[in-house]
Amino acid sequence: MSIASIDTSTSQLWNEEPATRPDRRKIRARIGGLHCSLCTGTIEKALGRLAGVDKVAVSLTHEQALVEYDPKVVRPEELLGTLRDIGYTIHDPRKLRPFEEEERELVREGNRFVLAVALSVASIPIIADPQIGWIGFLPALVCLSLGGLVFLVLRSKSLLAATAAFGGLAVMAGGLLYLNLAGYLTTAAPWVVGALALALVFGVGRHILYMALNTLKRGIPNLHVLLEIGVFDWSAVGVVGIVHNGTH
């Protein structure tokens, strides 16, 4: 990427800091989307591999990055553009984010989680086999645990919403389990579960897939990459199973 082609619309999204050398520059940027120390490692590797970058320090607690670089080789716009490419958002470190903006982000993440749980809970009773002994109770335990997490997430909104969501998940799981035990889903089960998996990976979790692809292109095998490798490995196993069952 040439320096001349960098979008200058990000020119207000960093703060200048004193550099350790007179021929160097240092900027501070505020990053959104940090979840754990693996995210900080991903950012440090992605920026540290850019030509002209000398030092990178990322704070998970303050959601900020300090980058020291050679201004003759790389520009701040390119640094921030790299962060966007691997799935993070940038905020002006000189300004506090409005409470409403942070609240909307929390609501969006909460909705993603609830939808992901709903898709997961829908698939569990479809593939459950209670005839295999005591382990047959595990699907019910998993569904109850996931429902409890949804209850806790929605409890901050209202007790009514949390109770309704938990009850809805229980009714859905129970209904699908009945259909499974009654034999109504014998033929359709693999296809239904496959459709739910596709909706989860390419719908609800597409931001994780996007981050995995962009970090993989930079040769950074972080948690997102490992997660997606596991997802696609199991998806391949599922496809083989469907084809195998269809030929017998």
Describe this protein's structure:
58% of the residues lie in helices and 11% in strands. With 248 residues, it is of the alpha+beta class. It folds into 2 domains: 3-91, Alpha-Beta Plaits, CATH 3.30.70.100; 99-204. Strands 1, 2, 3, 4 and 5 form a 5-stranded antiparallel sheet that branches. The relative contact order is 0.10.
One letter per element, helices H and strands E, the order comes to EEHEEHEHHHHHH
Number of domains: 2
Beta strands, count: 5
Computed structural class? alpha+beta
Residues in helices, as a percent range:
55-70%
Write the layout of secondary structure elements.
Blueprint: E1 15-17, E2 25-32, H1 37-48, E3 53-59, E4 64-69, H2 76-85, E5 89-91, H3 99-127, H4 138-155, H5 159-181, H6 189-204, H7 206-217, H8 223-246
Antiparallel strand pairs: 1-2, 2-4, 2-5, 3-4
Helix pairs in contact: 3-4, 3-5, 3-6, 4-5, 6-7, 6-8, 7-8
List keywords for this structure.
single chain, 248 residues, alpha+beta, Alpha-Beta Plaits, 2 domains, five-stranded antiparallel sheet, 8 helices, 5 strands, elongated, disordered N terminus
Summarize the structure.
This protein is α+β, with helices and mostly antiparallel strands. The chain has helices at residues 37-48, 76-85, 99-127, 138-155, 159-181, 189-204, 206-217, 223-246; strands spanning 15-17, 25-32, 53-59, 64-69, 89-91.
